[in-house]
Amino acid sequence: MKLERRVVFVEGFLKWWKRDKRYMVLVKSVILSLLPLVCCLVYCAAQGTGLGAVYLPASEWNDELFYYKQVEGIVNYGYPRGFFGFNESRALQLSFAAWSPVLVFPWVIWGLLFGWNLMSPVLCNIFLMMLCCFLFVWLVKPSWKQLGILGFLFCLYTPFVRYMLSAMPEVICFSLLIFFYSLALNYLRRERGYKLVILFVTAGLMTLMRPYMLLFLLLPCGFWIRRSKWKGAVGSLAVLAGVLGAYACIKHFLGAEYFAPLFFTDWVSAFWEQGVVEGIRFTLGRLYYMGKSFFGHTLQGYRTGLASGAFFAGFLVCMAVLVYQCLRDVRLWRKQLPEPLAKVEERKGRMSKQWQSFPGKEEGGGQAVRSAWEEDARKRRSLLVIEAHLAFSFVAMFFALLLMYKLTEGSKHLLTFMAAAIFIISLMETRFYKKVVLTGITFAYFYSYMAVDPYDYQVPFVQEERRAELEGWREKLSEQLVLNLDESAPQYENVVIWVLYDTVDGKSVNTQWQLLYGLPEGMGISCCMPDYVMEHFDALQSRYICVSPEGAIEDRCVEAGYRKLAEGEKAVLYQRY
Questions:
Q1: How far, in Å, are 57, 107, 114, 159, 512 from residue 119 at the CA level?
Q2: Which of 485, 484, 481, 490 is nearest to 79 (CA)?
Q3: Which of 239, 251, 436, 473 is close enough to 518 for a disulfide, judged by CB 3.0 to 4.6 Å?
Q4: What are the CA-CA distances from residue 95 to residues 83, 117, 236, 345 (Å)?
Q5: Kind and range of the H or E run holding 108
Q6: CA distances from 112 to 115, 418, 435, 569 (A)
Q7: What single-letter DSSP state applies at residue 82?
Q8: Helix, strand, coil proportions of the chain in percent (round to 5)?
Q9: 3-state secondary structure of 238
Q10: Considering only 119-128, 218-227, 367-376, 417-426, which range has the smallest mean pLDDT?
């Protein structure tokens, strides 16, 4: 009996494999999955180096230091044994910074499996993009033409490469959202309960990472409501409440206070404090003034390559393409004969002539036509739903950015939306490639031709002088910094104050924070403003302090008799007690 069941299973698998042409889908999946790696290798080769030369301590993005060291602490000790925070703020529980630790969970898994070093986030990012590309093709089954369009836009969207070769978690968001929409398309074509569960889990994780991704949780909620009516509605409300409650708990208990609010809600409180009319007036005023600033940034991006403006421009173009295509498809759908179905009618005419020569086959042939018509209609309807939801998410995020975020800091969040849009645009019906050309020209202009600022666009490659200095710090600090691992950890004895900048000879000088990559695993870092340090100098809690040489704060450290542990050209580390 066991042998018979195995034979039946193998035969069923082979029929499924051949019927759906899975061998061809597999070939396409592998081809697209190699594209992220090829793009990274080509970029590095164009710079005259290889992938192994990427070196995080040569980067000027200081967020990477926090992400990297936090994951290092999690991998080695379960959580950092010193507090991460700002102006010595700390989480109520454990020792994470202002952002949700859920944001970096793929890196944590990677570090536990393969170890954690300076190349780990880069390799994990590349792997995640390769995996999501593979799954996109496997789940969506694009045509060769669509695959070519996707490859074209993928190569022109250079933020893919920049963020893959970094320790920023944007690629984690890219990958999850692309997988989310791929599975959503697959679900609409063939609905299964387990797919809906995975959609909820994926969207829930994204929301726990960044709250604005609640927009994507609304899609599986809509699917469930359509599927189960009032049961789906009640269940969806429960899921939304549970995810939002979990995010609130993570933010409250595991998040350290940032220098300033991460997003603003004064426009909401205005309704309660000033009444509905004044609340509307306040909100419209905020939209007007922030909108002017938004388009001012966009114009600067066009003229000078300002990164935030370049991101805004790409976002606006992708949003316009999605909204236009969505409205166009709705109009065609209402006419009951969308363009893809016209092609089915043509095939129906050709097939009918062939069936006439086969007496007795008309009934089966008619069923084949109906099946083909229904399959094309299902694909068209599925893509329309995804286009509509992504267009809605773009518009909602646009207003959220104007109302709730600082424009310069919020601009990088738009990259995730554009990454997903690239994959959806590649699936749109096109005859003259107008939408593809418009999107491609936008990407080429803003993210290649005008990408001149090394801070925003240049991948950090190894600098021998900096590497030698960092290794020197690592060796000294491993001997002199003692990580306290007793039951009271996390604690301020395991924290280094990083003074963001100081005044030297009348000039503002940034502390060379890159040397803090050399801190022992598990140490915490508190990024502090110089005003805070000077005001609370005698009441600081952290055991160590890293300052700019010859600055006002170093003078205070010398006067207080602090012990010097390590010294570099632009950074000095002292032990306070």
A1: 11, 11, 11, 19, 21
A2: 490
A3: 473
A4: 4, 21, 33, 63
A5: helix 105-114
A6: 6, 31, 43, 35
A7: S
A8: 70, 5, 25
A9: helix
A10: 367-376
| Residue 571: DSSP 8-state | -
Q: What is the amino acid identity at position 114? A: F
The Cα–Cα gap between 10 and 68 comes to 46
Q: Which amino acid is at 41?
A: L
> In whole angstroms, what separates CA 12 from the centre of its chain?
39
Report the distance separating Cα 296 and Cα 300, nearest Å.
6
> For residues 132 and 27, is the Cβ–Cβ distance under 8 A?
no
Helix, coil or strand: residue 490: coil
Report d(CA 368, CA 419) in Å as an integer: 37
**Phi, psi for residue 54 in degrees, rounded to 5:** -65, 130
CA distance 412 to 414: 5
Phi, psi for residue 295 in degrees, rounded to 5:
-70, -25
The position carrying tokens 């602090």 is 562
Tokens of 411: 């601009």
Q: Are 256 and 527 in contact (CB under 8 A)?
A: no
Q: Tell me if 553 sits within 8 A of 499, measured CB to CB.
A: yes
Separation between Cα atoms, residue 463 and residue 465, nearest integer Å? 6
Q: Is 108 exposed, middle or buried (0-12, 13-18, 19+ CB in 10 A)?
A: middle
Cis peptide before 106 (omega within 30 of 0): no
| 362-404 and 276-304 helices, crossing angle to 10° | 100
| Cα distance between residue 301 and residue 546, in whole Å | 36
What is the rounded average pLDDT of the residues 442-458? 93
Closest by Cα among 437, 413, 414, 412 to 425: 437
What is the per-residue DSSP string for 396-456? HHHHHHHHHS-HHHHGGGHHHHHHHHHHHHTTS--SS-HHHHHHHHHHHIIIIIS---HHH
Predicted pLDDT at 4: 58
Fill in the amino acid letter for 88.
Answer: E
pLDDT digits over 74-132, tens only? 999 999 999 999 999 999 999 999 888 999 999 999 999 999 999 999 999 999 999 99
Q: DSSP 3-state assignment of 548?
A: coil
| DSSP notation for 285-299 | HHHHHHHHHHHHHHH
Q: 487, 80 in Cβ contact below 8 A?
A: no
Q: What is the DSSP letter of 94?
A: T
Q: Are 236 and 221 in contact (CB under 8 A)?
A: yes
Per-residue pLDDT tens for 365-412?
Answer: 455 545 555 666 777 888 899 999 999 999 999 999 999 888 888 899
